Amino acid sequence: MQKTQRKTDAEQSDGADKAPAETLESLRAEIVRLSERIVLLEKTLGTKPAAAAAPEPKPVEEIIAPEIVLAISAAVAAYLGVEGHIRQIRLIHNYPWGQQGRVTIQASHSVGASHG
């Protein structure tokens, strides 16, 4: 019984050894094919003019008019009751989802006067 079992194990290992060997060979062939393709692409990209790799545009700094800064400063002072120091002003571009979010938040605040 043990001889039969050993023979079966040997047969199974021979069959199992073929599959990894075939897989290894197919992987090696694929690596060679991809390496050749990379060399071809590098040669193709190397011949294009440098204009194809355009640098990223610099962000545009939007200048806020002094009158706007003064109006914002006055609004902050009126809201706080004291003169506030403005550290930074950022322009927020008007995107519909952002505008709707602001409307929702502002609508949730109680605007009515309290009668006590």
Report on the structure:
This protein has 116 residues and is mainly alpha-helical. The protein has two domains: 2-49; 66-108, no CATH class. Helix content is 63%, strand content 0%.
Topology:
Blueprint (H helix, E strand, L loop, with lengths): L1 H45 L19 H15 L15 H13 L8
Structural class based on helices, strands and sheet pairing: mainly alpha
Question: What's the mean pLDDT score?
Answer: 75
Main sheet: strands, sense, barrel: none
Instruction: Please give the count of helices.
Output: 3
Number of domains: 2
Beta-strand fraction estimate: under 5%
Helix content: 55-70%
- Stretches with pLDDT under 50, minimum 5 residues: none
In angstroms, what separates the terminal alpha carbons? Answer: 99 Å
Topology, number of strands: 0
Give the overall form.
elongated
Over the alpha carbons, how many angstroms does the gyration radius reach? Answer: 36 Å
What's the SSE pattern?
HHH
Summary of the model, kept short:
The protein has 116 residues and is an all-alpha fold.
Features:
elongated; mainly alpha; 63% helix; 2 domains; 116 residues
